[in-house]
Amino acid sequence: MPNTPSSSLLWRDVCVFDGLQVLPTPMAVQVRAGRIVALTPMAAFTDAQAIGYREVGCGGVMTPGLVDCHTHLVFAGSRAEEFEQRLEGASYADIARAGGGILSTVRATRAASEEQLLAQALPRLQALLADGVTSVEIKSGYGLNLADELKMLRVARRLGETLPVRVVTTLLGAHALPPEFTDDADGYIALVCNEMIPAAAAEGLADAVDVFCEHIAFSPAQCERVFQAAQRHGLGIKVHAEQLSNQGASALGARYGALSADHIEFLDEAGVQAMAAAGTVATLLPGAFHTLRETQLPPIALLRRHGVPMALASDANPGTSPICFPTLLLNLACTLFRLTPREALAGMTAHAAQALGLPELGRIAVGAPADLCLWAIQQPAELAYAVQPGRLRQRVFNGIISHPSGVSAHEC
Ligand code: DI6
Ligand code: FE
Question: What is the pTM of this model?
Answer without folding.
Answer: 0.97
